[in-house]
Write the structure tokens for this entry.
Amino acid sequence: MISKKMNLLPIEYQQRYEVDTKAFLQKAIISLFVISFIAFLFLGKYQLYALEREITSLESQQRLLSEQSASLLSIQEELVKLEGQWTKYDTLGVQSIPLNEFLKDVTESTPKDIWYTTIELYQVMNDSDSQDTEQTNVNLQHERLHFNMKGYSQSVASVGQLAYILNQLSYTDKVVIDYSAEITLDTVSLIEFSIQGRITQ
């Protein structure tokens, strides 16, 4: 049996119906294209934003590593100065512990998240000894050797831990945190500190 669909609408309505259908399809295709294009733009913008954040983070890490490298070079220079100071003090008989022992103890006592910018040794004369100017050579024997350590840390707890350990050494006392403050380098928060102490031997 042969069947055939017939459109019984008048001819003028049939033509109008066909034109409206084509227009609807065209609009639907255009709308779909526009929506796809907008979605593509939003996706690209999101990926670009994520990439920018990653680049910013990597740049901050690179700057921090560069600063740490510069700090290491500064520490090496300070160690050379310390060796010269220690040799000078040793000839005056001011100290009796070897330099290597002090540096070894400092290295072992330093938490991993701390790095130094300055390690300084200096002498402080006792008030009772400084009154007689004719006893200069004798006074040198009574001078106290002090140290000052400056640097940065990622936490206050590490600074306190370092000061406590240094104060427990057999040849040190009066170890105090002279200064500590939170600072921001680029986007990284750090603790800037200064620790002072006295060598008793």
